[in-house]
Amino acid sequence: MTPGRAALTGQAEDYLKVIYEIERDGEAAATTAIAERLHIAPASVSGMVRRLARQGLVVVERYRGVRLTPKGRRVALQMIRRHRVLESYLVTRLGYGWDGVHDEAERLEHAASPDLIDRMAAALGDPTVDPHGAPIPRADGTVDDARLPVLNDLAVGEQGRVARMSDRDPALLRYLGELGIRPGVTLRLVDRAPFDGPLTVAVGRARHVIGVTVATRVYIRDDRR
Fold this sequence. Notes:
- This protein is α+β, with helices and mostly antiparallel strands.
- Among the domains are: 5-72, Winged helix-like DNA-binding domain superfamily/Winged helix DNA-binding domain (Arc Repressor Mutant, subunit A); 151-222, Ferrous iron transport protein A (FeoA) (SH3 type barrels, Roll).
- It has helices at 10-23, 31-38, 45-54, 70-92, 102-109, 114-123, 170-178, 212-215, and strands at residues 58-61, 65-68, 159-165, 186-192, 199-203, 206-210, 218-222.
- The chain has a five-stranded antiparallel β-sheet. Strands 1-2 form a two-stranded antiparallel sheet.
- Strand 5 and strand 6 (206-210) form a beta hairpin.
- Helix 1 crosses helix 2 (31-38) and helix 4 (70-92) packs across helix 6.
- The chain is globular.
């Protein structure tokens, strides 16, 4: 059984996942940031945070925000594993498009048992990343989830290989797919307009002009490393 999961609602599990994702950027999860990710009012966050703190899943740092305890991190990673294995199974075995699996996985992850998730993962050959390039936590709760630079961090003339992108916005995924920007593809920054203007990116022989907002949501690895 996932640690602490028996007493948690699906909403509480969603909170833990979101707090983990925000913490990946090196900061405590502020109430406003949690509310924004969950599309709820900030005033609604405080009560749930207090309940999670009483269960030993989070600690509140005054004036900074919320951080997961080791127990909370284990639960969050198990939920993230469920989500990403489900996405992988839906795409690989059931023919879902990579832009349409996030919401479906969100609905299924709270009901799926650990055994079912492990069987799905085994049937897929225990993949290490999901269809969007995000690392899948292992059954033992470990994960290779290092912080990565984004496309917008490249200097003109530099290139990098697409590692991952967020699965939360189907329209963005469809747009990136139309441009040929997917995990594993090498991109080169050809030009950057001044004053936060758009970027010109080479994808193979094609050239595309994309906005800074898009460029901050595509994570890359340096091909030289």
